Amino acid sequence: MVNWLRRGHDNPAASAPNGAAVVDGDAGDSPEALRTSVAALVAFVNRSAGQLPVAAVVRTRRLTDTLSEVIDTSAVRPLDVYALISLRGTLDDYLPTTLRGYLAVAADLREQVRASGRTATQSLLEQLDALQTSASSVLVAARDQDVDALMTQGSFLRTKFSGSDLDL
User: What is the pTM of this model?
Assistant: First the structure.
């Protein structure tokens, strides 16, 4: 991730939670690297689709599509640090951990109601919904940043090219 988050770490090339190597510098945060992480998650979901509930596959693909949309906003301006942290967390940890956790549950136990009052499948879907809510919020923030930048540019141009009260 960003260099300043790595200060004090002896081995910045350690493996990320999904098995991908963390690259020295910010190369791992490039749009290309982020898209590669999304593609790896999509491939994992596709390989695991037979073991996941259909609703989970659909929700996961919707989530990866939203993450891709966030990444696509970098065509206009670099992603801010908060978007990068959210993307990396979701791509490298939260989503893979959620899916692998569900897949680790024996198939005959996935529909048993647990002490929490929910089944493993219900818990999986709730977790995917929480991740989607977070990703959607990041997308809205990135788009709002673009709108704010456009409004700021418009204000600058109006001030620059229209007469000022200070003109003599």
Answer: 0.74
